[in-house]
């Protein structure tokens, strides 16, 4: 499945953002590098709700596992070695609902937390991403858990990113 990149720009009081959504499709990843020219930060967005979902282009691949693999491959990219990293784990609202009927351990057998504990499941997923970054370097990564349908919470998250990461 191939999709064109989606590009949007927006401004806040102190920053201009140029966001490029490369849609995560595995085909064409080698063509993404040009999208980061002049960037200062890598904002990586992963759907928490993807832990029990397969990829459209590969029905044998778990979406969350593929997100972590993609994250690892970006960290290994020479052009991105100097960028600060912000991990946005989105769809927290859906994740909390899904975990009640689809325990994380059904998809990640090494998960040892309580079956329907969304906080323990979240900690496990964050640890997967932190393990990926520790493979390549010692850069710090700031993690945010978001629900994109909650506009006020998203605005607060963006303000926090600007105040703590980008200041």
SSE topology:
Blueprint lengths: L5 E6 L4 E6 L19 E7 L15 H13 L8 E7 L1 H10 L16 H19 L4 E5 L5 H15 L2
Parallel strand pairs: 3-4, 4-5
Antiparallel strand pairs: 1-2
Written description of the protein model:
This protein has helices spanning about 65-75, 90-100, 120-135, 150-165, and strands at about 5-10, 15-20, 40-45, 85-90, 140-145. It has about 170 residues and is of the alpha/beta class. Strands 3-4-5 form a three-stranded parallel β-sheet, sandwiched between helices. The model has no long low-confidence stretch (mean pLDDT about 85).
Descriptive terms for the model:
167 residues, alpha/beta, three-stranded parallel beta sheet, two-stranded antiparallel ribbon, 4 helices
Could you tell me the mean pLDDT? 85
Could you give the count of β-strands? 5
Broad shape: globular
N-to-C order of helices and strands: EEEHEHHEH
Strand order of the largest sheet: 3-4-5
Instruction: Give the termini separation.
Output: 38 Å
User: Which regions have little confidence, pLDDT < 50, spanning 5+ residues?
Assistant: none
Proportion of beta-strand residues: 15-25%
Q: Rg from C-alpha positions? A: 16 Å
Which range best describes the helical content: under 10%, 10-25%, 25-40%, 40-55%, 55-70% or over 70%? 25-40%
């Amino acid at each position: 499945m191939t999709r064109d990149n989606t590009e949007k720009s927006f401004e806040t009081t102190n920053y201009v953002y140029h966001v490029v959504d490369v849609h995560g499709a595995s085909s064409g990843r080698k063509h993404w590098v040009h999208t980061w020219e002049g960037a200062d930060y890598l904002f990586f967005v992963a759907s928490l709700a993807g832990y029990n979902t397969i990829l459209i282009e590969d029905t044998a691949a778990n979406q969350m596992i593929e997100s972590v693999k993609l994250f690892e491959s970006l960290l290994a990219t020479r052009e991105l070695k100097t960028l600060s990293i912000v991990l946005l784990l989105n769809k927290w609202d859906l994740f909390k609902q899904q975990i009640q009927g689809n325990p994380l351990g059904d998809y990640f057998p090494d998960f040892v937390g309580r079956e329907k504990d969304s906080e323990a499941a979240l900690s496990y997923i964050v640890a997967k991403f932190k393990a990926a970054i520790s493979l390549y370097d010692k850069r710090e990564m700031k993690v945010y858990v978001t629900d994109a349908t909650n506009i006020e919470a998203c605005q607060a998250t963006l303000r926090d990113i600007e105040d703590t990461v980008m200041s």
